TrEMBL record:
<dbReference type="InterPro" id="IPR018934">
    <property type="entry name" value="RIO_dom"/>
</dbReference>
<dbReference type="InterPro" id="IPR051272">
    <property type="entry name" value="RIO-type_Ser/Thr_kinase"/>
</dbReference>
<comment type="similarity">
    <text>Belongs to the protein kinase superfamily. RIO-type Ser/Thr kinase family.</text>
</comment>
<keyword id="KW-0418">Kinase</keyword>
<feature type="domain" description="RIO kinase">
    <location>
        <begin position="48"/>
        <end position="300"/>
    </location>
</feature>
<protein>
    <recommendedName>
        <fullName>non-specific serine/threonine protein kinase</fullName>
        <ecNumber>2.7.11.1</ecNumber>
    </recommendedName>
</protein>
<dbReference type="GO" id="GO:0005524">
    <property type="term" value="F:ATP binding"/>
</dbReference>
<keyword id="KW-0479">Metal-binding</keyword>
<keyword id="KW-0808">Transferase</keyword>
<dbReference type="Pfam" id="PF01163">
    <property type="entry name" value="RIO1"/>
</dbReference>
<dbReference type="InterPro" id="IPR000687">
    <property type="entry name" value="RIO_kinase"/>
</dbReference>
<keyword id="KW-0547">Nucleotide-binding</keyword>
<keyword id="KW-0460">Magnesium</keyword>
<dbReference type="GO" id="GO:0046872">
    <property type="term" value="F:metal ion binding"/>
</dbReference>
<dbReference type="InterPro" id="IPR011009">
    <property type="entry name" value="Kinase-like_dom_sf"/>
</dbReference>
<keyword id="KW-0067">ATP-binding</keyword>
<dbReference type="GO" id="GO:0004674">
    <property type="term" value="F:protein serine/threonine kinase activity"/>
</dbReference>
Length: 305
């Protein structure tokens, strides 16, 4: 099975441009502006037409900055982070000559031989795909199977972000990047950071505790954890690295391994691990939070106690 038989443009696009030079090179060049092309019928050099039309699109109510116009173009601005399982790129999607602009984080899951499956099989318990050909392919880790798995992580993350984003829009109790679209193994998300400079928001781990309002950040964290518990899911990899801080507000990211705590026999353990990971950071910074009390409450809210 050739790659593009199973998954569309997202994977084909991957080989097109490489940004394995210096990480935030585009920041140093200070260039968020496109280069002009000589042929006016083509998008600018390095640009592509927006892939919005052929994608699985994010939930309603759709934020007004999401660019849905046919004439929108995507410009790759550089790489934000290479990870073990995915690479995250900064993409500008804008409508030329209109000032309509958006910045997106494109998270591309690795589907090939170079992907490390650090999310172990425990996460996949209770999750199934309907078609048996796909199940077999995934079980024997053929290259089609590997791509299937990568696509499943992307789809699982897209789904989890959509659900949480909607709850956040209704309650204001949890923040995640708006999931703009999904194609195959590529997710495009709201870029959390400065849309002028292209600088990403810092991770919680990098936030200086002498200037931050730790009590407020902890309150936000417990609110977010409550939302997850009441939705009967665990983040599954919550940590000060998978939490960004934008203008004093916590934004949870990196949710492909979200765990259904009712379906998964280790559901309560996943909640406990999430709580301990983040509580430990606050305790180290000098805020005496009680992880056990919080865990009790969350297990109750999830219906596990
Ligand atoms: N929506 C976003 N806006 C801004 N930056 C983002 C966004 N999503 C991801 N990033 C950046 O990319 C990094 C990696 O993203 P993420 O944690 O989702 O992927 P990952 O492959 O699991 O990476 P890792 O293995 O480092 O955890 C984040 O720590 C963050 O710096
Ligand atoms: Mg991460």
């Amino acid at each position: 099975m050739r790659e593009h038989d199973a998954f569309g443009p997202a994977t084909m696009r991957r080989g097109r441009r490489k940004f394995d030079d210096d990480d935030a090179d585009f920041l140093k060049r200070g260039r968020l502006e496109p280069r002009l092309h000589e042929d006016p019928d083509l998008p600018d050099i390095g640009d592509n037409w927006s892939t919005w039309d052929g994608s699985l699109q994010g939930p309603d109510p759709r934020p007004d900055w999401v660019r849905t116009e046919h004439g929108a173009v995507d410009t790759e601005l550089g790489i934000l982070k290479t990870g073990k399982e995915a690479d995250v790129f900064l993409v500008r999607r804008h409508v030329p000559d209109t000032g309509k602009n958006s910045l997106l984080a494109a998270k591309r899951y690795r589907d090939g031989e170079h992907r490390l499956f650090h999310r172990d099989a425990g996460y996949l318990e209770g999750r199934r795909v309907r078609r048996s050909r796909e199940n077999r392919a995934m079980a024997n880790r053929s290259s089609f199977g590997k791509q299937m798995i990568a696509g499943q992580w992307a789809a699982a993350e897209f789904d989890a972000l959509g659900r949480l984003w909607q709850i956040g829009a209704e309650t204001g109790l949890v923040r995640v990047p708006y999931p703009v679209q999904l194609i195959g193994t590529e997710l495009m998300l709201e870029f959390i950071g400065d849309w002028e400079t292209g600088e990403a928001a810092p991770r919680l781990a990098q936030v200086r505790s002498d200037t931050a309002d730790l009590a407020d950040l902890w309150q936000q964290m417990t609110d977010a954890l409550s939302v997850l518990a009441r939705a009967q899911v665990a983040h599954g990899d919550l940590s000060p690295y998978n939490t960004l801080v934008q203008d004093g507000k916590l934004v949870l990211i990196d949710l492909p391994q979200v765990v259904d705590v009712i379906g998964n026999p280790q559901g309560a353990d996943f909640i406990a691990r999430d709580v301990r990971n983040v509580a430990a950071w606050f305790v180290q910074r000098g805020l005496p939070v009680n992880a056990d009390d919080l865990l009790e409450r969350l297990l109750y809210e999830a219906g596990l106690k």
